[in-house]
Amino acid sequence: MLCQNCGKNEANFRYTQIINGVKKELILCQDCARKLGVDNIDLPMNFSSFLGDFFNDYAENSLLPSFSTNDVKCKTCKMTYNDFINTGMFGCSDCYDTFSGPIDSLLKNLHGTARHIGRGIKGIESKEEKIKPKESKKTSKEEEKEKLEKDLEKAIKEERYEDAAKIRDRIKEIDK
Amino acid sequence: MNWYVQNGKESDVVLSTRVRLSRNLKGIPFKTRCTKEELKKVFDTLKEVTPLLGYNLKFIAMEDIDNLTKQTLVEKHIISPDFAKTKVPYTAIIINEEENICIMVNEEDHIKLQVFTSGLDVDNLLNLAIEIDEKLEKLVNYSYHEKYGYLTACPTNVGTGLKISALVHIPGLEMTGNLNKMLNIVNNLGMNVRGVYGEGSKAEGDIYQIANNQTLGITEKEIAKNLNLISQKIIEQERIARKYLAKNSLKLEDKVYRDYGILVNARRLSEEEAIELLSSVKLGTDLGIIKELTDKKVAELILYTKPANIQKRIGKELSVIEQEISRCEIIKQIVKED
Q1: Contact yes or no for B144 and A124 at CB 8 A
Q2: In sequence order, which residues have a C-beta less than 8 Å from that of residue B28 and are 6 or more positions away?
Q3: pLDDT 10s digits, A60-76
């Protein structure tokens, strides 16, 4: 079938548009699709709000009444919680403090925890630097964690994946 | 020869590894809330400090790069497709000649520090990324929170801001019907798997990207360790699958040599067909069945048959049909080389 736009090339692209119940369809070749700007249409699903909605569902339990309206605004960038729900992204660093209530629960659902334990910038010691070297005494928690990590490796090597998942969850519990 | 056409460790299964750190500058809003002036401030700051970073890095504004070259960078997996298409002003890359270091400026975050290598080499790559991060941190002020770590626009990156990913080629698992099982296992262990080309559970060319999901409440070393562990598992299983296939050697030989035949003799090949043929031919070469090719030639074939790279190599823009014809000419050239 030939392209409806140029009538020259073989068509391999079908663009369908349904707006307010009115359906339009174009059968195009790749060149015309690119020229008309329809070859890289993002998925019809609005991913940014999908992500935001996902966060919102989990955060609902911890929402204070003021968060569900436009009352709370970040002082620096003027973003409201609704703005975040619609885009899935924060506006500035201060948003993390402004919305720290719902943020904590959504981070727990995303990462299993809401506290950073990795590298820090100079002037702020990260927990990594505080881990004592092997020769000195370890806390029982750290010892348990080390043992669990060894078990996790072993479970993966032996393909006991259900056990591995359970061990990983126990490690996460210790880190909380 | 840059990293994307070289072979690294475990290259039969792992094509390449990438380490990416997301960072933002203190005192400037994230990209979603930036005014033009604020974007320019990020742009100018990074431009100023580039010569002080070392590594022979060059600061190049995206508007100074033509679309075709941008697309070749996407095809090499050096910048994201969104970044290549974006109309946002004051975007740039900081990149070296080997193209194994590429910092995106004003993508989703102010700074996306990326380093790449061929094959699987997570620890060395992470060390390089951290080395550059520490240097950069001395020159600019990062946005960092005592509780939440490095702050990012999207909460999926907050904390370490670290995403490590590996591109794996797993035709063996696909052909032995073990693909879904492997994908489920990887998902259950908290990693993200997605096909690089095509949609659905079977990726075109059997190429998948494995990446960590968790960036907060985990140390950088742990992320690296987990990704290494899972990659090693995938490598082991893929090699077992390939060994099993090689036992039925006539069937496999026939398949890969037929695909090789089409690849080197066709007069016209679509991008989709080339991806499938190359997957088969790479498998044949990895297993030593196809003797006419080397690992290096396969890596070159995979890159230089992609649309923008074809046009860059020919030296001009081509229509899709012209690309399909040139693709075959380029394949013949590469195969003939010494």
Answers
A1: yes
A2: A92, B34, B38, B41, B42, B110
A3: 544 444 455 567 888 88
